[in-house]
Amino acid sequence: NLPAEGKFTWKAPSNIALVKYWGKKPVQIPANPSISFTLDACATTTSVTFEKKEMTGDFSFDLLLDGKPKEDFKPKIHTFFERVEAYLPFLKDYHFTIETSNSFPHSSGIASSASGMAALSLCLLNMERGMMPNMSQQYFNVKASFLARLGSGSACRSIEGPLIEFGEHDHIPGSSNLYGMQYPFEVDGVFKTFQDTILLVHKGEKQVSSTVGHQLMHGHPYAGNRFQQALQNMDALKPIFANGDLDGFIKLVESEALTLHAMMMTSMPYFMLMKPDTLAIIHKIWSFREATQVPVCFTLDAGANVHVLYPDHVKEIVHRFIDEELAMHCENGHYIHDQVGLGAQK
Ligand code: PMV
Question: The Diphosphomevalonate decarboxylase-like N-terminal domain covers which part of the protein (predicted)?
Fold first, then answer.
């Protein structure tokens, strides 16, 4: 009962990790658990149009970014199709037209792989839901996250929100290395409306991809300690979230960001993704926090951009600080105000 044709559209958000996932085993199995805020404004919208083929052959698809053919993304999508075919056995029966666009500027240094792979997974899984009308929402969310993980590990944290855990942890019931899930413990309201302003320090391509970075954790001299630390930080977050402990949150989140970059600087070959402006911003955040006691902190992705994190109730003063002191360190003064979001939407 395969349909002849159809179209599904999904919008999936990006996410920002608080405890970082860095290091993995095949196929996309994280070396340690991670947790992220789901974002809201930074998102990818993807439409998948499908038409049944006369004969099954290899995967067949066209890919358009902002309406224009995007040949250089095709190998990544092809690998993704190969990985998920076992779970979506109808893929070779169709020709797909995948049309995608990001809410954030192209090559802004904001990784679109998490939001992009999540949106594509949701569209493809929606085809299966059409064939299995009794599919539960829970099954749908878990499988969407499972498929997204096979595209990009962190993408499995972009299906739901506001706080998503990914990776097995003995003290977190239901946690899995195969998909992300809602953080199951109590979370104080202050974290449910948290703000994230993304400072676009460097918009170009990164010199080292996250795929290579993950690989460099194999045989890394500090890997074992780092994976232990991530487990401990997941435990330490539990009372921080429950009590709305902003000081504890700031210490843990900044330490995680710097540890991620420390792993890059101490791998072989070593590399550094922070830029002078990244460091200037970090120092200004520290001085501002010390002078004003405003609970604002930073985190970093695998790149030079800085995510400035702060509670909603200090939004006004932090926005002024960003305009007056931090925007000058961004490429063309460019930053994006975002906040915690609730996950993907049809
Ligand atoms: O999803 P990947 O393979 O691009 O890895 C993401 C790695 C970090 O963004 C640096 C950390 C994380 O947990 O998102």
Answer: 12-167
